[in-house]
Amino acid sequence: MRIEPIRSDMVSQQREINRRPADELGFFLVASNRELLNHVADLMNRQGAIGVLDSSGRVHYVIDARKGSPFAAKKIMATAGALVSDRQLDIRNTEIRVRHAVGQVLAKYVWNTQLRGYRLLESILRMAATDVSLLNPISKRLYPEIAERYKLKSHQVERNVRYLLDNLAMQERCSNEAQGAKLLASGETNLPVGRTITRLTEQVRDYLEQTEDKDIGNMTDDGMYLQ
Predict the structure, then answer these.
(1) What DSSP character marks residue 181?
(2) According to a count of CB atoms within 10 Å of the terminal CB, is the N or C end of the chain lower?
(3) Contact status, residue 28 vs residue 39, Cβ threshold 8 Å
């Protein structure tokens, strides 16, 4: 009797998982302990693993080890591999959506995109859009992370962004009031850094909510969604 290597079985198992519909969802009602046990046994026989949701929303996977440790090992590895793959895809999709949202929000205003502060502001908004707690306080949490990424000091990040906002405020004061969107509120002459970043972050998050149901696969090269 020839025994296939575990790694070969794991590859086959992974292919089987990948072929299943991503949105496959089933509800099963059981009215007795016997029905529950029979149904769990049936799922185990067909799938080799089941996920159990606890009261905190965490999923615990029960693996069928009745067929021996090699079978259980390949099930664990295949299930873990599928979860990691799904997680990586979710992260990538989130990054694409956030990058697009930030671009759409910033495109409404007349920035000097050649200034260093513009790139810093883009990164600030991408980070804050997925974790608003970084804004409180921005100087203690967000600036240090951006500074580390760009090999700067926190005060240099703040200074570059402030210069960018001062430049935008000057552009908006000098431009025709009817031309485009403006960050300057009526009667304002400058754009406070912390408050302005918070406002822009809110706009990005609003945009993400409005486009939540849109498929990023329908996004064109210029960042627009196909109808």
Answers:
(1) -
(2) N
(3) yes
Q: In DSSP terms, which residues pair with 225 in a beta bridge?
A: 219
Name the helix (H) or strand (E) containing 60.
Answer: strand 59-63
Strand partners, 52: 60
Residues facing 206 on adjacent strands? none
149 contacts 123 by C-beta, under 8 angstroms? yes
Residue for token pair 């980070």: 127
Task: Retrieve residue 134's tokens.
Answer: 């970084």
Every domain of the chain and the residues it spans: 6-91, 108-218
Write out pLDDT tens, residues 126-162: 999 988 888 888 888 899 999 999 999 999 999 999 9
Contact 51, 59 (CB under 8 A): yes
Phi then psi dihedrals of residue 192, to 5 deg:
-55, 135
Helix, strand, or coil (residue 206) = helix
The domain made up of 108-218 has a fold known as: Arc Repressor Mutant, subunit A (1.10.10)
Measure the CA–CA gap between 127 and 94, rounded to whole angstroms: 11
pTM over 0.85: no
What is residue 50's DSSP assignment? E
Taking the CA of residue 223 as centre, how many other CA atoms within 13 Å lie in the half-sphere pointing to its CB?
Answer: 12
C-alpha 89, offset from chain centre: 9
